[in-house]
Amino acid sequence: KADTLLHVALSPRQLSAVEITASRSQGPSENPHMGVLELPLQQLPLLPALLGEVDVVKALQLMPGVSGGNEGTSGLYVRGGGPDQNLILLDGAPLYYVNHLGGFFSVFNADALSQVRLYKGDMPARHGGRLASVLDVRMKEGNRDAYEGAGSIGLLSAKLSFQGPLVRGKSSFILSGRRTYFDLLSRPVSRYVSDGASTTGYAFYDLNGKVNHRFSDEDQVFLSFYVGQDALSGTGRGIAAGDSAAYRLGLGWGNRLAIFRWNHLWGSRLFSNLSTTFSRYRLENAFEERWETRSQGADVGDITAFQYWSQVEDLSLKIDFSWYPRPGHQIRFGAGTTFRRFVPAAFRVQTVRASVAVDTTLGAQAVPGLESAFYVEDDLAIGPRLRANLGLHGLHYVTAGGATFSLQPRLSARYALAERAAVQASFAQAAQFIHLLTSSGLGLPLDVWVPATASVPPQRSWQAAVGLSTVLGASFDLSLEGYYKHMRGLVAYREGTTFFLGGQQAGWESMVEPNGRGEAYGVEVLLRKNQGKLTGWAGYTLSWNWRQFAGINQGNRFPFRYDRRHDASLVLAYRLSERVSLSGTWVFNTGQAITLPSGKHPTALDPLLAIRHFQFQGSPENVVSFGEGNSPGPFFFGEYGSTPFPAYLPYRPAQRDIAHVWGWGHQVYDRGRNAFRMESYHRLDLGVSFTKEKSWGTRTWMLGLYNAYNRLNPYAYFLEEEAFFDPASQETVPRTRLKKLVLFPVIPSVSYQFSF
């Protein structure tokens, strides 16, 4: 027979991904550091999310020892610390503000990340400058061999990532962007509602990029950047009696980062990393109003423009070495310097009246600071069961007011009790030479970074912790940790003071209460399941968190606002098939500690003289009661979003009550700072994902249900006066009702994800 030639046409098809899972059977991690959390990024897309946007910081809030502040926000409160006490690094550069949309989103685009690691208090000596934690986030480096992309479209935002080789096998890049389109909806709606008189819009965006090149087996360089911005803007106009008015307003904030790194291998035992970073965070608020008056045929125009801004930026240079003298022994050492510039709060007012212009600027002068640091870390095995990490971090801080030096020892150890169990202990000191002045509010970024000075000294802390970790069966890890932390040098606004209530002429230092002390202690439990169709974790924290200032709460200690006695979370993901996955999270925590009035009465004192703070003695008349207790109890389970206090009772201030002059002609009493507890918070979120391989790649539909059983958790409380008919006196008397603001009822979401 003659040979036969067959032509077979082939069509490309995407193969299903092959998942390779490796597990350690010898026991828990050999890392001597305690409280280290590694976020499994591959499981992150499976978690249900608010408005369909998976968030790294919100996933960390589900871990023991980490609190999130108000519902829906991306704050981090780690083991009793404040948001300023977290060193948040993106490829080694510090981020000073990590929230979008008042905290509903964080600045981290999960599609651009390769690693998220959190150190809770037991920080390695190579990190310094903060008291509470280190969040080390690393960006992907890009695929050196093939081009690939990924993206998603949700209810409020969309994102797209693309990566691939620049020189195959040697260099690569990744570029990832995210943007909301809320402004595309809000602007036409606001224009329609106001009949064209005004518009309002809000949007944010993130842009991550990174390139790297390997020159040889010994040398590799990296260049990465991040740009993120929020913008809230509005315009309006009006005409009356021949006069016209128009205004423009804007509120914007954002980060700018640039990082360069050079890795060099000096031999088989010595490695170095030289890096330089730039970071800037800026907040700006602007308002402009124009009036035009037509009188006797002449046009007269007045203009008033107001601008407020706050900024912090730093430029740093650092060298790190890793030396391996022998197997199982690593020594790290290095040094660096950071030049930092603060503009705590600057104001500019421009006016034009009758063609006469006046331009006034206050507080725009930058405050410089210089930090120089060194460290050494020795990680070694001492026998077959004991492993230890001994470290020392030194920090020299210089400002115009003088210089300060701090030595911070760090010690952590792990002792293997058996093949599958170990005990751990750690002790760490830390110092922080910057402060964050925090304003209470609904999440707007009105917090201000300021440096430590002679009158506002740096923050310092020490923390001790012990723990037990073990492996249960083939799939479960269990850890139990207890800690105690002592803090000093804390700051807060003086009562009744913010940057918008004067004090600029005297300087920001006159508006703060320095030298505060803090105490935090508790127990954390974490149970993880890492293998099988069902994966997830359960966490629980029992903790106490106190603050004390000489000029606040009469010098008595009080609970920190985010003191949570109980904090529990359950996170589960179940792979029903290769195409369908189910997920759910349930959280419970004790309500926030807040300050609420316990009574008030008229006063003849002039409220403009000062905000007064004193112990009341005597019994006022004509008092409106808010009830005798300081806990709402069952009264919050009545009317939707509105709850009356207990019965109308005559109020007599207790000896411990604190009086404040407040508003026009009233004196208000409270039981003390943060003496009132909000309702306990709990919520169930559910999600399901449908994945399908297509000829061009993979697509996934994500359906979610936030707050599945519609728990009406309070975001904030406020008081409202109303007239009340008293049956006993047959008179109409004033009564005060306590109401709660609920932002998040049950919220369904849908998002579409794809990769190619």
Major sheet size, sense and barrel closure? 22 strands, antiparallel, barrel
Count the domains.
1
CATH class descriptor: Mainly Beta
Could you tell me how far the N terminus lies from the C terminus, measured between alpha carbons in angstroms? 46 Å
**What does the average pLDDT come to?**
81
Polypeptide structure, described:
The chain is mainly β. It is 2% helix and 59% strand. The protein contains two helices and 45 strands. It has a 22-stranded antiparallel β-barrel. Strands 1-8-9-4-5 form a five-stranded mixed β-sheet, with no helix packed on it. It is globular. The two termini are 46 Å apart. Residues 11-27, 604-656 and 661-665 have low confidence and may be disordered.
Protein topology:
Blueprint: E1 36-38, H1 56-60, E2 66-67, E3 77-78, E4 86-90, E5 93-94, E6 99-100, E7 105-106, E8 113-120, E9 133-139, E10 148-153, E11 157-167, E12 171-180, H2 182-193, E13 198-214, E14 219-240, E15 243-265, E16 270-295, E17 298-326, E18 329-353, E19 356-362, E20 367-382, E21 386-399, E22 402-418, E23 421-432, E24 434-437, E25 448-451, E26 459-472, E27 476-493, E28 512-529, E29 534-548, E30 558-559, E31 566-575, E32 580-589, E33 593-594, E34 597-602, E35 613-615, E36 624-625, E37 642-644, E38 658-661, E39 666-670, E40 676-677, E41 681-693, E42 698-706, E43 716-726, E44 731-741, E45 747-755
Parallel strand pairs: 4-9
Antiparallel strand pairs: 1-8, 2-3, 4-5, 6-7, 8-9, 10-11, 10-45, 11-12, 12-13, 13-14, 14-15, 15-16, 16-17, 17-18, 18-19, 18-20, 20-21, 21-22, 22-23, 23-26, 24-25, 26-27, 27-28, 28-29, 29-30, 29-31, 31-32, 32-41, 33-40, 34-36, 34-39, 35-38, 37-44, 38-39, 41-42, 42-45, 43-44
